[in-house]
Amino acid sequence: MPSIPLPPPDPSELLATPDISLVMPCYNEEAIVGQTIRRTLSAFRGAGHRLQLIAVDNGSRDRTGEIIQEYVDAGHPVVRVRVEQNQGYGFGILSGIPHATAPWIGFIPADSQVDAHETVHLFEEAVACEEPVLAKARRRFRMDGFARKVVSVTFNGLFRLLWPNIRSFDINGLPKIMPREVVRGMGLSSRDWFLDPEIMIKSYYLGVRVIEYSVFARMRSRGLSHVNAGTCVNFFAGLIRYRFSSELSVWRRATPMHVASASSGSGGE
């Protein structure tokens, strides 16, 4: 049985097409990943939504993969994907996307800092829009320390300076949920921490409306954050590179801008 037990799933839950596929990259998260899986499965099951949880063992050197496999072996709707060598947060998500089978795809962290019921709420709001949208969290109430807040404010300020028409107050906020055709149209490629800004930038150029909801981001109860000084350098260097290199313009020339109406723009709440 899983390290954190769950009631056995209804067989019909496993046979039907899921409503949403959530990709969760996990790097050395043995202290928290079982709790996150349990809470996420319980929240979606309790709300009556069929979930496919794609847990990516992103090159972990601890028991992360074993804990994920316990839930798979117990018959829960969890897919384990193994990355042999960690190549970054973004690569973990990119490795999980091909396994998604639902019409909606989302990305969540493994740290349980945003409550699973908030993810359910975001999904329900996205579906209710009846149009292609990117539903994401804005971590308005954060308990991850003063230094992290300063870095976040600085990063989001620089982003707004470079892309003033993208009106998000938390570019890196997770969860992010969108239709699978939007994910396909984005042609995501960032293997590192720049994947979240890439999603926001490409959603803008695709004309996909962004709906952003405030969530409470609690402190980690277990495990260690993988955000460090190198992460910050990666963020800032990625912004400058993406704004002034030809990478974005090459994608725009190669991608039909037809996922959503160009007049939709980006918005926030």
Describe what this molecule looks like in 3D:
- The chain is of the alpha/beta class.
- The protein has one domain: Spore Coat Polysaccharide Biosynthesis Protein SpsA, Chain A (Alpha-Beta Complex), CATH 3.90.550.10.
- Helices cover 41% and strands 18% of the residues.
- It has 10 helices and 7 strands.
- Strands 3-2-1-4-6-5-7 form a 7-stranded mixed β-sheet, sandwiched between helices.
- The longest helix has 17 residues.
- It is globular.
- The N and C termini lie far apart (42 Å).
- The C terminus is likely disordered.
Helix content: 40-55%
Instruction: Determine the CATH topology.
Output: Spore Coat Polysaccharide Biosynthesis Protein SpsA, Chain A
Question: What letter string, H or E per element, gives the SSE order?
Answer: HEHEHEHEHEHEHHEHH
What are the low-pLDDT stretches, counting only 5+ consecutive residues below 50? 261-269
Structural class, by secondary structure, is alpha/beta
Task: Give the CATH class.
Answer: Alpha Beta
Short overview:
The protein has 269 residues and is an alpha/beta fold.
Key traits:
10 helices, 269 residues, 7 strands, single chain, 7-stranded mixed sheet
Map the helices and strands.
Elements: H1 11-15, E1 20-26, H2 33-46, E2 51-58, H3 64-73, E3 78-83, H4 89-96, E4 104-107, H5 116-128, E5 133-142, H6 146-162, E6 176-179, H7 180-186, H8 195-205, E7 209-217, H9 229-244, H10 247-254
Parallel strand pairs: 1-2, 1-4, 2-3, 5-7
Antiparallel strand pairs: 4-6, 5-6
